[in-house]
Amino acid sequence: MHRFPAVVALAATVLCAACTDNPAKPTPTVAPSSAPSAAPADDYSAWQAGRSTPVADKLYPEHGNSKIDILGYDLELDWQPPKKLLTGTATIRLRPVAAATEISLDFANLTVDKVTVDGAPATGTLAGQKLTVPATLIADQPVTLVVDYHGTPKQVSYPSHRGDAKEGVGLRPAKNGGLWTMQEPWGAMTWYPANELVSDKALYDIAVTVPAGWAAAASGTPGPVEGNTYRYTSAVPVAAYLTTLAVDKYQKITQTGPHGLPLTYWVLPKTDAKLVPSLKKSPEILTWLEQKLGTYPFETAGALMNGSISAMETQQMLSMGRSLKWDPAFFEETLVHEYAHQWFGDAVTPSTWTDLWLNEGFAQYMQFLWEQKVQKFSDAQLEVFLRQRDAELRKTVGPPGKPKAANFAESNVYLCGAAMLKELNDALGDAKFFALMRAWVAEHQGTNQDRASFIAFVKTNTGKDFSQLINAWLDSPKTPK
Known about the structure:
Helix content is about 25%, strand content about 30%.
């Protein structure tokens, strides 16, 4: 999740910034292509690991398509800094969940050049933030959609009063010709046609070609650099909001984490120099998290620095905004938070945005425990702080289990969720609580979960019914006693 100073410090306060959504104007229909692209492979077995059960999101029904399950995205991208021009080809393997007469995906602010479905020319219509392609879809019979497109990316807005809402979400050019994105709860649609459902995880292959002297960093496992083309693969399914891309005149730094885990950092040599020592504490942070949560759930880790005023848990490659004017301690606390999300949010992801507390409450609680380790404050002090802030946030924003569409990812889902977990931790003791957390991730990795499944899991694994405690902390308008 985006991290903003007001959310992470013990003295956190809710900041407000007005934000409205401005959908893109309709774009004329793209005529059928005269020459079909290469025919897709008939064998989709290699993409079955990307199979999901899409769930329509009640908070944001205008985004995503629950009738389609994306199995895999293959993105071939080219970025030209002087022109601020992105050119892309998205090859999308998708499984129709039900019979339909069209493919509808989220896509914004770019121009579609050509569309094919299973190699045959097709039309593509852009209206608002949707790309619609007529197609005869049969349930569970996969098809391949190929979309060629170009343009200058532009971010879109999202509904929140957070301080970082003013910068919007999605891919955007930097003043120096670079490129970067932050994109929760949506924003992937600003650089490729995407199914912006948190419940639709998919496999990814991302290739980005840049001029000499520039480098491209993206989510996933770094692959070979071929000339000026940088490649990344996500062999573990990823929700669209957890993908990332950045282009800059980066320096690449590599390091080894616990049990030989490859770590990669992308920094600007002069601008980011003061943060490199903190980035290099990643092995220590990850070792501490593994002691609590179990083995890190992916094959690589790392972080890229970009121009944001926030930070985000993009899968296998954290997105850390350099515009926050970090001090080392706060930067390291945020690294803990975003790395903790690799377990809570990335490996195990909510089914809908209503259960965002499953991401943020867990990551925030781990951050507080790290701060407690470093700053040496007591459990009693943490309890007093949590209850005071919890009461303030429930009054101003509401309980974390009943988020409002206009208040996406505000402080209540972080801090109130963390307060609930502390109560559960106190009730179980450290040994049983962290055994529970390790089992939660180990048993549900790669899936989407919700409140009901968490409550049932806790009961099954502890032999006790904690539903009253969990529901009270998620739903009560006042801090539970």
